[in-house]
């Protein structure tokens, strides 16, 4: 997999300079010309803010006066005052938010993947009203997160919420549950709302992959009498795996940066605080630009590491498959 | 090994009826080819036998058992698809073994069967490859191998050679014929290619618009087409059709008037043909010859030299006639020639398209008598 050389640009670029023909050099030049605008935009909108954030994380900047700050090195991350370790890396609230985010990501993306596959398989079957169903299922995804989070907040309200009311009437619970405030239920509630909202996205990506699959192999399996479950695990799943992996990475990236859903549902509760909510609290509420930037920098590093690990793991597995 | 019987098989998709009551008996070990133009229902008929489509009406028997409501797997059939339908992510070996793993076969037995089939098809050195690493011909062999390892009662082929190039098609065709000779399994084969039908079939079933036009051995269909459709479909280049008029009818022949005015006696049973009735005269290109006194006089539009023979396309009396003669042609486009045919080589069709029975037997006198009946 790794030694496959792409034709054109990649091959030409790795060739020793002296031997490149003039046609190749022209091609490489025009390739750079086409890429340049995108690179400039990326540097301006992503590179500059990122660099500034990383810089601020080494200062004691304050939101009240951003021009007046001093360089303090790694003290926002880790510092030793009179034998006592301080800084972000010793802050239990920060580690709590990291743990919350990872747990949220793992649980919600897992559930969304499984449900997404189920929904996609259903939508892929031929039944009347399939077109309408496909549109209907998109509604949760189409609603802005703040709106749907607010809506769920109201439905989950401990006194006036429709969910507590229904569960009470059905006799499933004896007393109203404070879904978003109770430490035992808060993070699960966040996961539930996220699953409700994002499963359609997963389902649509997987459905697109399912519709690319050749139909004849399913007829062949039918003639050969292979059990449908076996066909799913041995044929369908391996064939949609590349698309599934892309969908999971997309969703995991979103989940690791989760902010709006948690902020609207549970505000600054420590039980559900994600890394992004933590960083916002430091930056805006406590006006600690230095500490907030340090948190943001760590978020960036954690996400970058996780994505790199996922990509490497995914490529290794894909490589085995193509051998 | 099994016989297959179709009794009044009908199939509708929604309101559209595509198979209108097909009756057919396929004998044990027979190679039957369904042939017809696209949309004639031949593939649908095969899929009905496979169980990939539900039969709307009628009964399907395999080995004497009514299998209408049986799942495809239970019918003990194997199907080879036009697109090969190989699992793209599995090796050749797994492609062949996948369908077996469930069929109560032990691992060593599966292994033995896969290797045996691979050896038979000469793909034993490809077992570890993925389908995309194979050529079209190799993929088709894997698809056939997957059918063989199942040891089915009936092999079904759905246009298996259409995606291959011409040379490979001939080669694979010969291999399929050999496979049938070796296994003596019942085979049903769908194609739109009449050469495949003629060369492979014990019996050909000509289908048109969801109905059987004629069932018979290849030579029966060639020499005694039951109607205009079969006459036009079997044989290449196509049979020439000439509108004629019955002048007189004897007990064993009809005298017809050709468009040029001459008359020609054709040895067929008149079966109540009236004088003056409009008929269609059918002449195969091989039976039209250039003759000084021929009744069809016209200008050659095109000459096709094929080496062992040549084709003359002649516009005569408002007709387009095709003649085939052996060797090289001395004629050129633009030459005026006369074409002639003997009445003994011609066919006559009534207005309904139905052929009048020949009084003189043709060509197929060597065909074994039991396969004459449809």
From TrEMBL, chain A:
Compartments (UniProt record): Cell membrane
A GO-annotated cellular component: plasma membrane
Membrane disposition: Multi-pass membrane protein
GO biological process: transmembrane transport
Regions annotated as coiled coil: none
Boundaries of every ABC transmembrane type-1 domain copy: 98-312
Alphabetical keyword list: Cell membrane, Membrane, Transmembrane, Transmembrane helix, Transport
InterPro entries in the cross-refs: MetI-like, MetI-like_sf
Transmembrane feature ranges: 31-51, 102-123, 135-155, 186-210, 231-253, 291-313
Assigned protein family: Belongs to the binding-protein-dependent transport system permease family.
Protein name stated in the entry: Carbohydrate ABC transporter membrane protein 1 (CUT1 family)
From TrEMBL, chain B:
Gene Ontology terms, MF aspect: ABC-type maltose transporter activity; ATP binding; ATP hydrolysis activity
Keyword Metal-binding belongs to the record: no
Recorded superkingdom: Bacteria
InterPro entries: AAA+_ATPase (IPR003593), ABC_transporter-like_ATP-bd (IPR003439), ABC_transporter-like_CS (IPR017871), ABC_transpr_MalK-like (IPR015855), ABC_transpr_MalK/UgpC-like (IPR047641), Mo/tungstate-bd_C_term_dom (IPR008995), NA-bd_OB-fold (IPR012340), OB_MalK-like (IPR040582)
Location(s) in or outside the cell: Cell inner membrane
Database matches in SUPFAM superfamilies: MOP-like (SSF50331), P-loop containing nucleoside triphosphate hydrolases (SSF52540)
Domain ABC transporter residue range list: 4-234
Annotated membrane topology: Peripheral membrane protein
UniProt KW keywords: ATP-binding, Cell inner membrane, Cell membrane, Membrane, Nucleotide-binding, Sugar transport, Transport
GO cellular component terms given for this protein: ATP-binding cassette (ABC) transporter complex, substrate-binding subunit-containing; maltose transport complex
Pfam families associated with the record: ABC_tran, OB_MalK
Family matches, as Gene3D superfamilies: 2.40.50.100, Nucleic acid-binding proteins, P-loop containing nucleotide triphosphate hydrolases
Spans annotated as Disordered: 354-374
Family under the similarity heading: Belongs to the ABC transporter superfamily.
PANTHER family: MALTODEXTRIN IMPORT ATP-BINDING PROTEIN MSMX (PTHR43875), MALTOSE_MALTODEXTRIN IMPORT ATP-BINDING PROTEIN MALK (PTHR43875:SF3)
Protein name: Multiple sugar transport system ATP-binding protein
């Amino acid at each position: 997999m790794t030694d496959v050389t792409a034709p054109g640009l990649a091959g030409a670029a790795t060739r020793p300079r002296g031997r490149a023909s003039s046609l190749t050099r022209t091609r490489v030049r025009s390739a750079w010309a086409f890429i340049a605008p995108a690179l400039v935009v990326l540097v301006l909108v992503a590179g500059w803010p990122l660099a500034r954030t990383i810089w601020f994380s080494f200062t004691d900047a304050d939101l009240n006066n951003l021009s007046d700050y001093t360089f303090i090195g790694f003290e926002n991350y880790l510092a030793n005052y009179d034998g006592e370790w301080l800084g972000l890396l010793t802050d239990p609230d920060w580690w709590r938010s990291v743990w919350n985010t990872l747990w949220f990501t793992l649980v919600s993306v897992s559930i969304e993947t499984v449900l997404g596959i189920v929904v996609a398989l259903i939508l892929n079957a031929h039944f009347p009203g399939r077109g309408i169903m496909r549109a209907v299922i998109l509604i949760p995804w189409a609603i802005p997160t703040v709106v749907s989070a607010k809506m769920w907040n109201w439905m989950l309200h401990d006194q006036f919420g429709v969910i507590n009311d229904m569960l009470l009437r059905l006799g499933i619970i004896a007393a109203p549950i404070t879904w978003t405030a109770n430490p035992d239920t808060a993070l699960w509630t966040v996961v539930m709302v996220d699953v409700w909202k994002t499963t359609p996205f997963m389902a649509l990506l997987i459905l697109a992959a399912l519709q690319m699959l050749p139909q004849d192999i399913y007829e062949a399996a039918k003639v050969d009498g292979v059990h449908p479950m076996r066909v799913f695990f041995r044929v369908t799943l391996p064939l949609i795996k590349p698309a599934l992996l892309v969908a999971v990475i997309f969703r995991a990236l979103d989940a690791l940066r989760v902010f709006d859903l948690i902020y609207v549902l549970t505000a600054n509760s420590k039980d559900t605080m994600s890394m992004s909510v933590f960083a916002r609290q430091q930056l805006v509420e406590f006006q600690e630009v230095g500490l907030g930037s340090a948190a943001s920098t760590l978020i960036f590093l954690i996400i970058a590491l996780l994505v790199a690990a996922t990509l490497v793991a995914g490529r290794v597995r894909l490589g085995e498959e193509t051998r | 090994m099994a016989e297959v019987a179709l009794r009044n098989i009908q199939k509708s998709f929604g309101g559209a009826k595509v198979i209108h009551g097909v009756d057919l008996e396929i004998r044990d070990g027979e190679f039957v080819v369904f042939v017809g133009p696209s949309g004639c229902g031949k593939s649908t008929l095969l899929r009905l036998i496979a169980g990939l489509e539900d039969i709307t009406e009628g009964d399907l028997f395999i080995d004497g058992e009514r299998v209408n409501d049986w799942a495809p797997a239970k019918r003990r059939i194997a199907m080879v698809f036009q697109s090969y339908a190989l699992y793209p992510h599995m090796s050749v070996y797994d492609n062949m073994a996948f369908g077996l793993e469930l069929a109560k076969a032990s691992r060593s037995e599966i292994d033995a069967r896969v290797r045996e089939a691979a050896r038979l098809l000469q793909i034993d050195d490809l077992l570890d490859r993925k389908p995309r690493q194979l050529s079209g011909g190799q993929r088709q062999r894997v698809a056939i191998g997957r059918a063989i390892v199942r040891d089915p009662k009936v092999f079904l082929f759905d246009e298996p050679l259409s995606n291959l190039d011409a040379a490979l098609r001939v080669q694979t065709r010969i291999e399929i014929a050999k496979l049938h000779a070796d296994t003596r399994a019942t085979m049903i084969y769908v194609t739109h290619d009449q050469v495949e039908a003629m060369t492979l079939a014990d019996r050909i079933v000509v289908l048109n618009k969801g109905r059987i036009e004629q069932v018979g051995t290849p030579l029966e269909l060639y020499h005694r087409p039951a109607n205009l459709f079969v006459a036009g479909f079997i044989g290449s280049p196509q049979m020439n059709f000439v509108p004629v008029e019955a002048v007189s009818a004897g007990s064993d022949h009809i005298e017809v008037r050709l468009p040029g005015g001459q008359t020609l006696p054709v040895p067929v049973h008149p079966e109540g043909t009236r004088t003056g009735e409009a008929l269609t005269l059918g002449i195969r290109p091989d039976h039209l010859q250039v003759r000084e006194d021929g009744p069809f006089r016209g200008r050659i539009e095109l000459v096709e030299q094929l080496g062992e023979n040549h084709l003359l396309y002649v516009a005569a009396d408002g007709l387009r006639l095709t003649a085939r003669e052996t060797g090289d042609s001395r004629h050129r486009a633009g030459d005026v020639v006369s074409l002639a045919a003997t009445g003994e080589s011609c066919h006559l069709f009534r207005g309904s398209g139905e052929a009048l029975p020949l009084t003189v037997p043709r060509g197929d006198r060597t065909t074994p008598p039991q396969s004459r009946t449809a």
